[in-house]
UniProtKB/TrEMBL annotation:
<dbReference type="InterPro" id="IPR029068">
    <property type="entry name" value="Glyas_Bleomycin-R_OHBP_Dase"/>
</dbReference>
<dbReference type="InterPro" id="IPR050383">
    <property type="entry name" value="GlyoxalaseI/FosfomycinResist"/>
</dbReference>
<feature type="domain" description="VOC">
    <location>
        <begin position="6"/>
        <end position="155"/>
    </location>
</feature>
<dbReference type="InterPro" id="IPR037523">
    <property type="entry name" value="VOC_core"/>
</dbReference>
<dbReference type="Pfam" id="PF00903">
    <property type="entry name" value="Glyoxalase"/>
</dbReference>
<dbReference type="InterPro" id="IPR004360">
    <property type="entry name" value="Glyas_Fos-R_dOase_dom"/>
</dbReference>
<protein>
    <submittedName>
        <fullName>VOC family protein</fullName>
    </submittedName>
</protein>
Amino acid sequence: MIRTKGINHIALVCRDMAETTQFYTQVLQMPLFKTVQLPDGGQHFFFDAGGGNAVAFFWWEDAPPAAPGIASVKKFPFDAKTAVGSMNHLAFDMEEAELEAALERLEEAGVPHTHMVFNHDDSPSGYAREMHEGVFVRSVYFTDPNGIMLEFAATTRSFGPEDVRHAPATLAEDA
């Protein structure tokens, strides 16, 4: 049996390593703990996201350009679909009490972000304006300099069997 201990790191691609390093170390205050110069001229840098987790970035001078709406979100929450095999967003775990301070930090740094904390629940819209006992996670969404959608997420309750109540969807067969 394969037994993992969690996610070691996620590796993304950035357009400018200096700009990305400044954002992750200064704005998000994630220490840079490892840098690699790649034999093809590229770079691979690792940032400490806390709890033994890391976010890593590759940079190549000749990397293909960003492809919003294909490989990344165009604009959350209204145009958040991305292509099969793409990454939609990266969520950093955070204590609920830290969310308001995180919003203030993003505002101070001029980072584009949702100007409210989203209270995710099981309502038809998927979120509520006010906190209530059905809210299972509270989130703040923002983008990094590469257009990657990020999230600060605070889980507000434990999950149980009643939280798994939808059958997995599949593509319809051709008629």
